[in-house]
Amino acid sequence: MGIEFDNNQPIYLQIMNYIKGEIITGKLKPGDKIPSVRELAAELQINPNTVQRTFQELERETIVETRRGMGRYVTGSEETILTVKKEMAQDVLDRFIRGMQELGFQGEDILTAVAENIHQRNQEQGE
Amino acid sequence: MDDILDIQNVSKQFGPRQALNQVSFKLGSGTITGLLGSNGSGKSTLMKLIAGLAWPGSGRISILGVPVGVESKKLVSFMPDVPVTESWMNIGDALRFQQDFYPDFDQAKALRMLDFMKLRTADKVRTLSKGMNERLQLTLALSRRARLYLLDEPIGGVDPVARTKILNALMEFYEEDSSILLSTHLVTDIERIFDEVIFLKDGEIVLHRPVEELRQEHGKSVDELFREVFAEC
């Protein structure tokens, strides 16, 4: 795994988002086994308790399941994965809209700007 | 969590100089704690007191409830900031010496670690580079089946590649029911392996916190906070 860590933010959140990203983009598939705490800690040079906390949070959100004595697996539920995808999309949207508002764009203006941008991209692709 | 280490009101004076002043803290089992401070802040002195190589002027130190002394030394493995090996030794000799001194020395683990570190038993200690020597010292310390490992500046003065190798070895060979107290003044490369950090300044503890809490609260790295606290040094 390749994560560029930002030491200014909690590490467990960064690993969580990384694993969620891997699941959403299909690099980790439903039912795939995920590395053990030990393996991931050694690979990322991260404190094992931090990795443990990451997995606990992912379990709490039912994105990862523990099978007794066998390890941890990505959830088999497409529905859960879809929910995670929506949540992550929501975060991206929130950041985008906040940024636009800081630039002085409001409601309809933002919609227009987005529509224009997408229209332009489609045309460029069509050419 | 069981406390592995319990330090209460420890002070130590060298002549007129107060090296440690009313230091108190506890370390839980299965934790890695960074002891951070600039040169001369008292890190090595504190390590030596915990290892039982020097005595505090006042205060108490115990390891798993055992006061520091002959008995506590069985529980503590110390990697000092100066090599414990002699220059005439080869690495095999160093391992045999360690085994003679410490009944809990795990020869099989030591050989696995040497292999990981790319060291050979026939290598002469005298001919090792600084980075290679640090790897050997760490191998000797971590190959004991202790409950508390005291690592004094294990990445001091080695280049970034050697540093990465040493960190990898730490994560690979660390026993999860033991605890590590690791002193350093190089924070940025190593802060992600800590559960907690202790800032030691002029012999006093100015901060002792879980690192993830610090990041959450301040939106800053431990390294950045360290630089702020020690700015005037």
UniProtKB/TrEMBL annotation, chain A:
Name of the molecule in the record: DNA-binding transcriptional regulator YhcF (GntR family)
Source species, domain of life: Bacteria
Transmembrane residue ranges: none
State the UniProt keywords alphabetically: DNA-binding, Transcription, Transcription regulation
DNA repair as a keyword of this entry, yes or no, is no
InterPro entries per the record?
Answer: Tscrpt_reg_HTH_GntR, WH-like_DNA-bd_sf, WH_DNA-bd_sf
User: What residue stretch is flagged as signal peptide?
Assistant: none
Spell out the molecular function terms from Gene Ontology: DNA binding
Query: The HTH gntR-type domain covers which part of the protein?
Result: 9-77
Q: What is the lineage of its organism?
A: Bacteria, Bacillati, Bacillota, Bacilli, Bacillales
UniProt-listed Pfam families: GntR
UniProtKB/TrEMBL annotation, chain B:
State the UniProt keywords alphabetically.
ATP-binding, Nucleotide-binding
Q: Where is the signal peptide?
A: none
Q: What is this protein called?
A: ABC-2 type transport system ATP-binding protein
Pfam families associated with the record: ABC_tran
Ranges for domain ABC transporter come to 5-227
Task: Give the originating organism.
Answer: Paenibacillus silagei
Q: Which GO terms describe its molecular function?
A: ATP binding
Domain of life of the organism in this record? Bacteria
Q: Which CDD domains match?
A: ABC_DR_subfamily_A
